[in-house]
Amino acid sequence: MSKKNQTGKCELCCREDVDVTVHHLTPKEMGGTLMPTALLCIPCHKQIHALFTNEVLAVSLSKVELLRRNPAIHKFLKWIKKQPSTRLPRISKSNGRKQRKR
Q1: DSSP 78
Q2: Integer angstrom CA distances of residue 97 from 17, 86, 87, 100
Q3: Strand ranges (E), the chain
Q4: How confident is the model at residue 90 (pLDDT cuts 50, 70, 90)?
Q5: Which CATH class is domain 6-80?
Q6: What's the predicted TM-score (pTM) here?
Q7: Percent of the chain's residues with pLDDT above 70
Q8: Residue 44 · residue 13 · CB < 8 Å
Q9: Distance CA 42, CA 20 (A)
Q10: What is the average per-residue pLDDT within 73-89?
Q11: Are 48 and 57 in contact (CB under 8 A)?
Q12: For the chain, which residues make up each domain, given as ranges?
């Protein structure tokens, strides 16, 4: 699949007719280059990376079902499912993911 977005169904929020991107369920830097991927809409993909480090994704959230069951993502999914497929909400890193400047 090319790096350009394509339209389809998000495997996480199940919205249809959205631009989807490839999400490596095990991050590439953690050895996931040739491992399973999922097609996710842009808001879901950004939300995952805003909430979790690659280490957390590799160790405990490397399947779509595990992501869906995570409380932080579950709350986001309840909200995003109500949004039109054309909506691209602003996503910012969670407080736990922001690096503090010293």
Answers
A1: H
A2: 30, 27, 24, 9
A3: 6-8, 18-24, 37-41
A4: confident
A5: mainly alpha
A6: 0.80
A7: 83
A8: yes
A9: 6
A10: 87
A11: yes
A12: 6-80
The 10s digit of each residue's pLDDT in 15-40 is 999 999 999 999 999 888 899 999 99
Residues in the chain: 102
Which phi-psi region, left, alpha or beta, contains residue 59 (left: φ > 0; alpha: ψ -120 to 50)? Answer: alpha
62: part of which helix (H) or strand (E)? none
Per the CB < 8 A criterion, the answer to whether 38 and 12 are in contact is yes
Give the whole-angstrom CA distance, residue 78 versus residue 14: 11
- Which helix (DSSP H) or strand (DSSP E) does residue 56 occupy? helix 54-60
Q: Which two tokens stand for residue 68?
A: 């869906």
Confidence label for 84 from pLDDT (cuts 50, 70 and 90): confident
Contact 76, 12 (CB under 8 A): no
Q: Which of 8, 9, 12 is nearest to 74 (CA)?
A: 12
